[in-house]
Amino acid sequence: MPGNGYEDYEFTAEYYDPVYDRFTRRDIEFYVEQSKRAGGRTLELGCGTGRVLIPTALAGCEITGLDLSSFMLGKLQQKLERQPPDVQKRVGLSQGDMTGFDTGERYALITIPFRPFQHLITVAEQKACLTCVRRHLLQNGRFVLDVFHPSIPRLIDPKYLMEIETDPGIEMPDGRVLRRAQRIAAFHQVEQYNDIELIHYIKHPDGKEERLVHAFPMRYFYRYEMEHLLGLCGFRVVEFYGNFDHSPFTAESPEMIFIAEKV
């Protein structure tokens, strides 16, 4: 799997939760419901610090989380240790590459929430991931992933090469203040990905300031490209939504959410 920065820099794990805990994304509710309906264990690829995994376990579901980053898994383990013993028993964790993993189990549901699949730049990497997913699914199991619906202006407009502040003034428990901005560092239209930078500005209580950059490539997909890719790898799309409220896909939809079965 190509470098996405999460396994390279410890600060990506340190500042992940302060940013994303501030938002109420409907995807958590959506994925928890998918696990509750699955009737068996879930495998979440790219589980990170447990933003989706822990609510899933709290809902009574058995779930295994796989992530490439030891830093992200370390944060997740710390959070799990604060949960009741019965919740901890429902969770398994594994460090591994989503393009080549073997957990030794098969699952009723496999999920890739919130963009990890878009860190796979080449078709070979994408097919390798989907092949592993199919091999780990029970015969009647389901596979669910979401990718963003591309906005053409955002993918090509030079104004997005400039920094845009997205998260101003997040106060940390130890007194640090985090501001985060993002920019597109380069467009790669032929290869269908952009280089992304998430810029973290940290102000410490003693006045010290830091600028930390999380840089990574981000692949974008179109609807029928994803459907053909899934079909090529032995899946059939059975449900398709434009947002986590199960709304139909339209030109204005922010998401592309695929629910597939293996054939």
Question: How would you explain this protein's 3D organization?
Answer:
The protein is globular. The model has no long low-confidence stretch (mean pLDDT 96). The protein has 9 helices and 11 strands. The protein has 2 domains: 11-150 and 221-262, Vaccinia Virus protein VP39 (Rossmann fold); 152-219, N-terminal domain of TfIIb (Single Sheet). The protein has 263 residues and is of the alpha/beta class.
Please name the CATH architecture of the largest domain: 3-Layer(aba) Sandwich
Provide the gyration radius in Å: 18 Å
Per DSSP, the total helix count is 9
The portion of residues assigned to helices is 25-40%
What is the name of the CATH topology of the largest domain? Rossmann fold
Instruction: State the fourth-level CATH superfamily of the largest domain.
Output: Vaccinia Virus protein VP39
Q: How many β-strand stretches? A: 11
The SS-based structural class is: alpha/beta
Strand order of the largest sheet: 3-2-1-4-5-11-10
In round numbers, the mean pLDDT is 96
What is the H/E order?
A: HHHEHEHHEEHEHEEEEHEE
Distance between the termini: 26 Å
TL;DR?
The protein has 263 residues and is an alpha/beta fold.
Please render the helix and strand layout as text.
Blueprint: H1 11-14, H2 16-20, H3 26-38, E1 42-45, H4 53-58, E2 63-67, H5 70-80, H6 85-89, E3 91-95, E4 107-112, H7 123-136, E5 137-148, H8 152-156, E6 164-171, E7 177-188, E8 193-203, E9 209-219, H9 223-232, E10 235-241, E11 255-262
Parallel strand pairs: 1-2, 1-4, 2-3, 4-5
Antiparallel strand pairs: 5-11, 6-7, 7-8, 8-9, 10-11
